[in-house]
Amino acid sequence: MPYMGSLFLASRPRAFLENLLPSRQSDKVAKTVGREDVERRLADMLRISGEAVVNELRDQARAIAPVLGLNDQFQILDSLIAALMRSRPAELSAPVARAYAAGEPYDPNRLPLFEALFAALRAAPLPKRLDHAAEPPAFHHAAFFDAYFSNYIEGTDFPVDQAIRIVFEREMPADRPADAHDVLGTYRLAASQDEMCRTPRDFDDFLALLKQRHAVILESRPDKLPGQFKTTDNRAGATMFVARDLVKGTLRQGFGMLQALDAPFARALFTMFLVAEVHPFMDGNGRMARLMMNAELIVAGQCRLFIPSVFRNEYIGSLKRLTNHADPEAFLRVMGTAQEFVSRIDFADLHDARRQLDACNAFADPAEDIKLRMPQSR
After folding, report:
1. Cis preceding linkage at 13, omega within 30
2. pTM of the predicted model, to two decimals?
3. CATH number of this structure's domain 111-359, picked from the four choices 1.10.3290.10, 1.20.140.10, 3.40.640.10, 1.10.10.10
């Protein structure tokens, strides 16, 4: 490949072929990256650029291999590509390449985030706050505010009085019926003791729970494919979520880590971040993540948590810090504060609970210079 003047650069096909040559290490520095790294790079190319680009690389390598005397290396390269595309089996070493060959590729960029959170949850002292709203009517009242605030985070904002009428009197506003059904669907799940005591037994059960609960939340929005994983890629601002073809594999990688966590608070936070980071659905991902999180707490007899409106920026900021910098410290702190806040509210009476929340600025606009106040201990 022409570079400058009489200088040339080796082409990408040649680089792949030459890096499959056997290499003797000299002064502890190998001259090639080795087969496993080639596998990872091919998997990355397949994930980012697609099959057409990888096939073009193979065609170019086939053409130059005889000239370079690298026919044996081309045979290896050809077998690796065939295995990644599942047209012929071959032995693979890189985990991400093996996942492609097995038909369940994942996003390798998410694994360091999951690993950072997993390590922090294993190392940190975690709270064990008992659920003082475990029985009706307190359970249903706590579920109402859970659903109300969870929808507020996603931009579905109703006055509290109107949300109470939607949930408890089924008074649907004519101008926003779909939004009202989002709140009601979230409440139906959050207020069901049977539903909130269901946690996944295995990975297949995890996927089934996600889809079943999503179908309930978005039942009034058929255009959002309720109960189905996304068919197009999605993003929020500059953040690209996991590509649609990598959703199942990435969830499986994260679920494997989740199974190694025992503490309910750790399982809850990891579940929440896993679902939010993968974003498996077209819409409703945040609400799904928080419902899955609270199920892990409630089934263990621990206090659920929700994010008051005024605390939204702290919550979103902590998630961004974890996503962009693999730093879970703020996320653990924010979620711990949110659970402590909820644990201090008495939900025995709906309207009294509302007054307590209002006195602590829970419903305040996060854009205003108002802070969340912690209630007095119960």
Report:
1. no
2. 0.89
3. 1.10.3290.10
